[in-house]
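Posting for a labmate who doesn't have an account.
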Amino acid sequence: MSKSRSDDFFPEMTNVKDEHLHILRGHLLIEKKLRELIDLKVKKPDALSDARLQFNQILCIAEALYWENDSDWLWQRIRKLNNIRNSFSHQLEPKKYNDTIKEFLDMCGAKKPYEFSTKSTLVFAMYSIYKSLNEL
């Protein structure tokens, strides 16, 4: 299996107007990347296909396989993104949604420049995670 390139990310994000849809798509792309990384390290990837692993389980396996001393920041950011995705997937109006988005962007070092929307800044923050996973 070949690794997908970092430039596979943006075509999935174009023409998307809704912030929630950006988060869902970014989350799905990151999940796909985590699955690819796991498949590269295990001897029999097909053995996992029937496991019906949830995102957090996939994340924990990938972290166990790829963790390095200086990589905690990456796994923490992915967990925060998963919390955001879960918050609006399970609640009509999640509490503190904007605060959680701000925490995620701060965590990613994404300071919102005046000329960029929160949505654009969010996409670039998710891209930084995707790109970092692609470089493992």
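Reply:
Got it, the structure tokens are right above this. The chain has one domain: 17-134.
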